[in-house]
Design a protein that fits this description.
81 residues; mainly alpha; 2 domains; 3 helices
């Protein structure tokens, strides 16, 4: 009796994660649920605006990093903006 219960538990422990992985990786499920929800939350028009804001933030951070490095190494930073 004890061996049968252990075999059942082992099958259960192994089959549950495999089943969840299989279910979550179905292409139809992904298309229906995730992609539709993503388009609801972030429509393409808003995506363009967010991308521009992100690029501007990257540019500002890059400039700040350059200024910090120039100051750190004793090179006089150029004035910009």
């Amino acid at each position: 009796m004890g061996v049968k219960i252990e075999i059942f538990r082992m099958i259960l422990y192994l089959s549950f994660p495999v089943a969840m992985f299989w279910i979550s990786n179905q292409a139809e499920y992904f298309e229906e649920r995730v992609v539709k929800r993503q388009r609801e939350l972030l429509p393409p028009e808003k995506l363009k605006v967010e991308k521009q804001r992100l690029e501007e933030l990257k540019r500002k951070l890059r400039l700040q990093n350059e200024q910090k490095m120039l100051t750190l190494y004793g090179v006089a930073p150029e004035k910009s903006d």
